[in-house]
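PROTEIN–LIGAND DATA SHEET

This sheet pairs a single protein chain with one bound small molecule, NDP, given as SMILES. Inputs appear in the order they were entered. The predicted three-dimensional arrangement of chain and ligand is reported afterwards as a token string under its own label.
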Amino acid sequence: MIKVSIVGVTGYTGLELLRILKRHPYVNLEVISSKSHAGKSLSYHFPFSFEEKMIEDLERSIELAQESDVVFLAVPTGVSYEIANKLSKPKIIDLGADFRFNDPKVYEQWYGKKLENYEKFDRVYGLTEIYREQIRNARIVANPGCYPTSVILALAPLLKEKLLLDQTITVDSKSGVSGAGRKDSAEYSFCELNEGMKPYSVVNHRHVPEMEQELSKLFGEKVQLVFTPQLAPMTRGILSTIYVKTKASLLDVYHLYKKFYEKEKFVHVLEPNVFPSTKWTVGSNHVFISMTKDERTDTLVLISVLDNLVKGASGQAVQNMNVMFSLEEDLGLVENPIFP
Ligand SMILES: NC(=O)C1=CN([C@@H]2O[C@H](COP(=O)(O)OP(=O)(O)OC[C@H]3O[C@@H](n4cnc5c(N)ncnc54)[C@H](OP(=O)(O)O)[C@@H]3O)[C@@H](O)[C@H]2O)C=CC1
Ligand SMILES: CC(=O)N[C@@H](CCC(=O)OP(=O)(O)O)C(=O)O
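PREDICTION REPORTED AS:
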């Protein structure tokens, strides 16, 4: 059995991790912790979790979690780095952004924080389908952001084959509100979000440098992104629409994608002109990619959907854990979406 701990269990991704890990046949839950709910059981605060384990405070959980095989860090970006500095023994899967960047200066520029001694950490970007081999032996896995997972998976085959005419890519993404975590502010209240849509962090979202880093690696040259994220009045889900110029035919692109993802359990390439809904993914680790082409303008339109809390966060984190412990990749994740 794998001894697992969750730091930040009371957040949306922490609770989702718990939900997935409870149905994992080889997991023993050891330590759970949070910042402001310590001292009582999880079920005291969240009866639907059916988890009687006591929530520890951060300091105590770090001490106890040293004996775990793997620790999931489901805490705000910035906090993870401090915790990882104290957790010398277990493997770490960080759901935040602290370990996602090759160059800590890029992180500093976008997140406003210096990461001391970043080079000492042996870390791998945790987009499972792309970095599976490196993830196997990693001590620290940097789980990708939710938008980057949806965008990079939708572009990887095209970029690897160098089928781009223009290295500036336009991306429009809609996200469910759970993507923002359990925020307690008017901006995220029901009245302000229900029956409305609103863009935020247009062209300067923190996921831009993360996506550019990974897309450039796939393409082998610098790629730039114009990115518009939007809050959609739904709880879960991301729908990304990506516009790229290419001379490749729609059918060739489709066959390329089918081949690229043929062995993947969670990435599904739809036939041209079949378009998915975020509803196809709720509660599951599946991603759907669809495509069409505007022949007049040589524009390929790629659309991907996923559940931000599952493939976009906790599901992919467990998928990575399975890879790190040489288990079947879908253990704990064999779940169909909740539809409708
Ligand atoms: N939501 C999403 O869809 C996605 C989130 N992520 C990333 O996952 C991480 C967790 O996100 P999410 O679950 O949404 O966030 P939430 O805000 O819902 O939860 C945050 C969790 O961290 C705990 N926490 C907050 N501050 C501290 C602190 N200073 N020290 C220790 N624990 C603290 C909270 O405890 P308490 O509330 O008890 O104080 C809570 O358990 C973040 O890095 C986020 O960027 C990544 C991909 C998608
Ligand atoms: C809707 C919403 O607010 N989404 C979050 C992205 C969630 C995520 O992936 O965040 P990290 O990169 O910090 O892990 C945002 O835009 O910041």
